[in-house]
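INTERNAL AUDIT FORM
Audit reference: QA-55
Scope: verify that the stored structure record matches its stored sequence.
Auditor: D.O.
Record contents follow.
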Amino acid sequence: MSDARDSYLDAELDFDHLACPSPAYVVDDALLRRNLERLKAVQERSGARILLALKGFAMWDCFPMIRDYLVGTTSSGQDEARLGAETFGGEVHCYSPAFTEEEMQVVLRYADHLSFNSPGQWRRFRDTVAAAPRRVSCGMRVNPEHSTGAVPLYDPCAAGSRLGTRAADLAPEDLEGLEGLHFHTLCEQNSDALEETLAAFELKFGHYLGSLKWVNFGGGHHITREDYDVDRLVRVVRDFKVRHPHLTVYLEPGEAIALNTGYLVCSVLDIVENDGTIAILDTSATAHMPDVLEMPYRPELIGAGEPREKAHTYRLGGLTCLAGDVVGDYSFDAPLAIGDRLVFTDMAHYTMVKTTTFNGMRLPSICRVDETSREVRTVRTFGYVDYMQRLS
């Protein structure tokens, strides 16, 4: 590793990145606790109950810490519900666009709250729920038809959305036996978007609220982002509870729990030329950080600048056969060398939960940084068996 690169990383990181396997996801416990403290304060000030959305962050080795702050988990199906029940505890919420008969039998063993996507799904399973050996509070996801996001791919209120039932498709009898309503319309947004959406929700569905027990405001709340308006969020929730004092309010962020708490440490394997200099890494955009291609976005890299901002510009590419497996173009003060470590930031959420073994690539190891000693602990490594057991 070049001395310049090493010294810059040492200046930016207060843990030993060389103590991590490469590649590895590294979650910093001190940064995670900072987020949790902020979320706990929101709970205490607003009266809302906050759930960890496992679809965004499901590193269950961290759950003993997280459950000291949050009331439970929310899941997207049977396996997430089981993981939440067995490794986190507390309340277990579950929603899916549709359930099978077999999955419903599993979900009912673990979920405390269950949101259905349509009146048809509720009619199909209401007798099954009633016959379950444990009580489950059921609700329905609704679509306020109020878009606040800029990207249609992430907009549950876009025309033709399959997510949630519109007011025009809902009748009072459809809610018989249900105790809650659930809406989820945001993605990485501030509390002004929630305030707008909540007004649309109450306009379309407010006449149903008197007979219910809870409302779930969904996820997408970027509560732990530096510019997030927490005071507005607290006011919005408290004002809603004044209007509807009998209702329990839930928030279910996933990204906000782990936002800016983790890294992806990787290494340079080769450097080649083709209309520019290309550094090939031991990681992959498509397999290890898929949102880079799906969102798309350009992740931050410690010590790097925009193309041609610094003296040496490289395209950083992954190991798979996909021609577009490229993280992006970055510039550096000193030339890269084979063996150099690179550290991408904000790599805790929507990474580990979305990885693949495409091309037989091994998954990155998972590490944690102790908040006091700053020592790195490798929680999990992956090998051939993890790839083989996904296939048959």
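Auditor finding: record pair retrieved intact. The mean pLDDT is 96.
Action required: none
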